[in-house]
């Protein structure tokens, strides 16, 4: 009887321990199910929902419940890591693959550059998302984030286009195609999630404004993007009736509305009457990593050159005397042996600029 009395506290302790374990397992399962539900609902709007779910859940697991912003950050982080890994592989391939044609070698070099650009744009998106939504308006956040991610996707696709020419060795394309497509899908999923995040927050913000004591009236003109079913706002200037894109900063609208002579930093003139005779010279002389808009006026004339704007030349604006007066033309073409990336008359490898 005494032994039975002594064992009762132990038995009670064991029951309590088992109850705690069961409760812990129950809470863990509950968190897991809730996380799965949040992830599935968020990923449902992406083009590749299964990829979206698997990549995000593989990182967050049963951690704290996720907000939509958390999911976007995880998705973007995965895309960055995949793009970096892809860049290393392509760079190694470009340096080591010597038994290919000159054109294929150039195409691989283009892939190194465009993939590097994609990584840069993804990092800019990371920076924007880190401070979201506190530093600027939700509309600007939405436009900037979508621009960075769309540019990253475009750069990935440009690489594959350069290797899709009929004269390209198929083995070269196969060596990088699957990893490039994987990164593109990750970026596409992140773009869809960003759209959902910014649209949801913007809708909530407008709802709060309309229900406040001092409602704000915002005038929008919408059109539907047939490819992505996206509503994009265009702000209407009520004073002069001009409609400017929502993504355009007010300082850039003022530049477009002002007289040109008051805003040009340098002038390009084929006849020698300006600071430079070619656009390329003006771009080369422009400040690197400029924090303000740098305006290059291009006087009327024909400029036979390919203009490359490197990533270090940020915030550049080209301003001509009209499309029929200022003409930039060159002879590079895919048929002539150039890749898609290098055949552009004006190649902008920097972050999105206002040209």
From TrEMBL:
Query: What InterPro entries does the record tag this protein with?
Result: Invertase/methylesterase_inhib (IPR035513), Pectin_lyas_fold (IPR012334), Pectin_lyase_fold/virulence (IPR011050), Pectinesterase_cat (IPR000070), Pectinesterase_inhib_dom (IPR006501), Pectinesterase_Tyr_AS (IPR018040)
User: Keyword Signal: yes or no?
Assistant: yes
Q: In which pathway does it act?
A: Glycan metabolism; pectin degradation; 2-dehydro-3-deoxy-D-gluconate from pectin: step 1/5
Q: What is its EC number?
A: 3.1.1.11
- Keywords annotated in UniProt: Aspartyl esterase, Cell wall, Cell wall biogenesis/degradation, Hydrolase, Secreted, Signal
**UniProt keyword Hydrolase, yes or no:** yes
The superkingdom of the source organism is Eukaryota
Give the matching SMART domains: PMEI
Report the protein name in the record. Answer: Pectinesterase
- What organism, scientifically named, is this protein from? Citrullus colocynthis
């Amino acid at each position: 009887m005494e032994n039975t009395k002594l064992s009762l506290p132990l038995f009670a302790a064991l029951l309590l321990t088992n109850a705690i374990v069961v409760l812990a397992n129950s809470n863990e399962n509950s968190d897991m199910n809730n996380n799965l539900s949040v992830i599935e609902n968020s990923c449902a709007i992406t083009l590749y929902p299964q990829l979206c779910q698997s990549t995000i859940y593989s990182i967050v697991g049963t951690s704290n419940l996720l907000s939509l912003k958390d999911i976007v950050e995880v998705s973007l982080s995965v895309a960055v890591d995949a793009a970096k890994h892809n860049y290393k592989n392509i760079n190694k391939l470009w340096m080591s693959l010597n038994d290919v044609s000159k054109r294929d070698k150039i195409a691989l070099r283009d892939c190194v550059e465009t993939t590097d650009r994609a990584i840069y744009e993804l990092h800019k998106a990371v920076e924007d998302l880190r401070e979201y939504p506190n530093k600027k308006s939700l509309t600007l956040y939405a436009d900037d984030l979508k621009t960075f991610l769309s540019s990253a996707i475009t750069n990935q696709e440009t690489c594959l286009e350069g290797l899709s020419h009929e004269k390209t060795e198929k083995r070269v394309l196969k060596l990088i195609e699957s990893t490039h497509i994987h990164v593109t899908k990750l970026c596409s999923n992140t773009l869809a999630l960003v759209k959902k995040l910014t649209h949801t927050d913007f809708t909530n913000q407008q709802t709060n404004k309309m229900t406040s004591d001092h409602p704000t009236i915002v005038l929008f003109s919408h059109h539907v993007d047939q490819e992505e079913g996206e509503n994009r706002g265009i702000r209407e200037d009520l004073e002069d009736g001009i409609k400017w894109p929502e993504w355009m900063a007010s300082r850039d609208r003022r530049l477009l509305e002002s007289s040109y002579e008051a805003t040009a930093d340098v002038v390009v003139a084929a006849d020698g009457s300006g600071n430079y005779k070619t656009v390329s010279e003006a771009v080369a002389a422009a400040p690197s990593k400029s924090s303000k808009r740098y305006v290059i006026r291009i006087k009327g004339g024909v400029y036979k050159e390919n203009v490359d704007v490197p990533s270090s030349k940020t915030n550049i604006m080209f301003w001509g005397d009209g499309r029929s007066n200022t003409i930039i033309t060159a002879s590079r073409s895919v048929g002539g042996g150039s890749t898609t990336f290098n055949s552009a008359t004006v190649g902008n490898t920097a972050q999105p600029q206002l040209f």
